[in-house]
């Protein structure tokens, strides 16, 4: 039986990360730094001796480009890639496109903090982390996990909150714990799973 390998990587820095804007389902591209972070992610994975059979990403450019750059760095551009909006970033609704400081001026620092850091309180017209989990997790269970358990070495390039939703389940974290879990841009997290889908080992390649 080949290894049950699952690697999660958050996209490199986007133009809106740099400008301190709420991004959500908006579709800015990577910055020059983001491109470097994506290439570095591929190099880290290659240095670990890892290779992949399949990859998954969101419907958004910054995640797709991160995946393409990482795979290209590894010499694995030809593997099958599935793109699906189930892996999209959390939808920030009315906050999307706003500068975070402007949002705090409009709604108050405490309210914006609640929207950003609570598990189940969505911003106006948007999704909470709980809502993001509700669309990301079924996709993972139905479309990604079965391949991993069959021995398909799988790379998922997505977003801070859609990946947090998966990490919450993989690492059995509480809603309070997952809110404190930071994911660096372009930093792969390497999981090896047991046959029952629980985590046998985890290695964070940040830094």
Topology of helices and strands:
Layout: E1 5-10, H1 15-18, H2 32-47, E2 54-57, H3 61-74, E3 81-83, H4 100-107, H5 109-117, H6 129-149, E4 154-158, H7 160-170, H8 175-179, E5 189-193, E6 199-204
Parallel strand pairs: 1-4, 2-3, 2-4
Antiparallel strand pairs: 1-5, 5-6
Primary descriptors:
Rossmann fold; 8 helices; 43% helix; 6-stranded mixed β-sheet; alpha/beta; 207 residues
Q: What letter string, H or E per element, gives the SSE order?
A: EHHEHEHHHEHHEE
* Overall residue-averaged pLDDT value: 95
Number of strands: 6
Q: Strand sequence of the main sheet, in spatial order?
A: 3-2-4-1-5-6
State the share of residues found in helices, binned by percent.
40-55%
Main sheet: strands, sense, barrel: 6 strands, mixed
User: How much strand content do the residues show?
Assistant: 5-15%
Q: What is the terminal-to-terminal distance? A: 32 Å
Low-confidence stretches: none
CATH superfamily, by name, is Phosphoglycerate mutase-like
The total number of structural domains is 1
Overall geometry: globular
Structural class: alpha/beta
Radius of gyration: 17 Å
Total count of helical runs of at least 4 residues: 8
- Label the CATH architecture: 3-Layer(aba) Sandwich
CATH C-level category: Alpha Beta
Reported by name, the CATH topology is Rossmann fold
């Amino acid at each position: 039986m080949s290894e049950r390998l699952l690697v999660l990587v958050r996209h490199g820095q986007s133009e809106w990360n740099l400008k301190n804007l709420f991004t959500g389902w908006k579709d800015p591209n990577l910055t020059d730094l983001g491109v470097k972070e994506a290439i570095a992610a591929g190099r880290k994975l290659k240095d670990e001796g890892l290779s992949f059979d399949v990859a998954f990403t969101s419907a958004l450019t910054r995640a797709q480009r991160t995946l393409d750059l990482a795979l290209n760095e590894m010499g694995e551009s030809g593997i099958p890639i599935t793109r699906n909006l189930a892996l999209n970033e959390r939808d920030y609704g009315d906050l999307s496109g706003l500068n975070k400081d402007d949002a705090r001026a409009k709604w108050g620092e405490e309210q914006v903090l609640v929207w950003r850091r609570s598990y189940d309180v969505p911003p106006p017209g948007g999704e909470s982390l709980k809502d993001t989990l509700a669309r990301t997790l079924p996709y993972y269970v139905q479309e990604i996990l079965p391949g991993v358990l069959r021995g398909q070495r799988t790379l998922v390039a997505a977003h801070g909150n859609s990946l947090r939703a998966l990490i919450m389940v993989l690492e059995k974290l509480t809603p309070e714990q997952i809110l404190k879990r930071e994911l660096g841009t372009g930093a792969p997290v390497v999981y090896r799973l047991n046959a029952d889908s629980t985590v046998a080992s985890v290695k964070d390649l940040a830094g």
